[in-house]
Amino acid sequence: MRLDESLLTNLPPFSKLDKAAIADILQHATTRRFDAGVSVFEEGDYADRFYLLLDGYIRVVRITPHGDQVIALHIPSGQLFGIARALGRDTYPATAITASETLALSWPAELWGEFVAQHEGFSTETYKVVGQRIADMNNRIFEMATQHVEQRVACAILRLINQTGRKVDGGIEINFAITRQDLSEMTGTTLHTVSRLLSAWEKAGIVKSERKKVTVCDPHKLVVLSTGTG
């Protein structure tokens, strides 16, 4: 699959590069489609490739020492993932699972250092992404330590509609399949608690929760709940 360099000029890894530099990077890329719900790579696997998500969403999952699954974050299209080398690692620190049908570019991991050294814009933009994800994870840790469960669930849904939301009749819908179990894994609570909260919020007209779909009908009320002042 041959990609036009101009299609990538607004994406963070390429936004500071000219077309010649983008073409140089693209000639080493492999394109692959993934079905929804499949693993691109597993936590602990040797990090032999890094990826750019062209279309779709990636769910980043960690496994606790007790074997429980925790959803660390979601990655929207237009971003790099699997960038273990940027963290100084030879293995993937988490599992990447497709949250929807996905199209991605990938490169051999040994080219990471070459791209960073040869293309300054590639380096600065990709490390901005790393910094933003670290900040996001710090915010998540703060939420887990300081917020009540209702606030955490509200914050998680708000994050998702800010990243991936699309306008539909009646509100803003998270633009990929997400279950109540997914929300419980994102917020460190139980499936029962998430189900109870969503049912109450649905009765209050704040959200609409259907099979693997969540729509926010009243964003302002959800923001109020996320602050603990509602």
Structure description:
- With 230 residues, the protein is an alpha+beta fold.
- Helix content is 39%, strand content 26%.
- Helix 4 crosses helix 7 (219-227) and helix 5 crosses helix 6.
- The longest helix has 27 residues, at 120-146.
- The mean pLDDT is 90.
Considering the chains and any ligands shown, give keywords for the structure.
about 230 residues; alpha+beta; Jelly Rolls; Arc Repressor Mutant, subunit A; 2 domains
Condensed summary:
By secondary structure, the protein is an alpha+beta fold. It has two domains: 5-134, Jelly Rolls, CATH 2.60.120.10; 147-227, Winged helix-like DNA-binding domain superfamily/Winged helix DNA-binding domain (Arc Repressor Mutant, subunit A), CATH 1.10.10.10.
% residues in beta strands:
25-35%
- Helical percentage: 25-40%
Cross-sheet strand order for the largest sheet: 1-8-3-6
* CATH fold assignment of the largest domain: Jelly Rolls
Number of strands: 12
Under the CATH scheme, which architecture of the largest domain would be assigned? Sandwich
Low-confidence stretches are: none
Derived from helix and strand composition plus strand pairing, the structural class reads alpha+beta
Note the overall shape.
Answer: globular
Which SSEs are present, and which pair or pack?
Elements: H1 19-26, E1 30-34, E2 39-41, E3 49-55, E4 57-63, E5 69-76, E6 80-81, E7 95-98, E8 102-108, H2 111-118, H3 120-146, H4 149-164, E9 165-168, E10 171-174, H5 180-187, H6 191-203, E11 207-210, E12 213-216, H7 219-227
Antiparallel strand pairs: 1-8, 2-7, 3-6, 3-8, 4-5, 4-7, 9-10, 10-12, 11-12
Helix pairs in contact: 2-3, 4-5, 4-7, 5-6
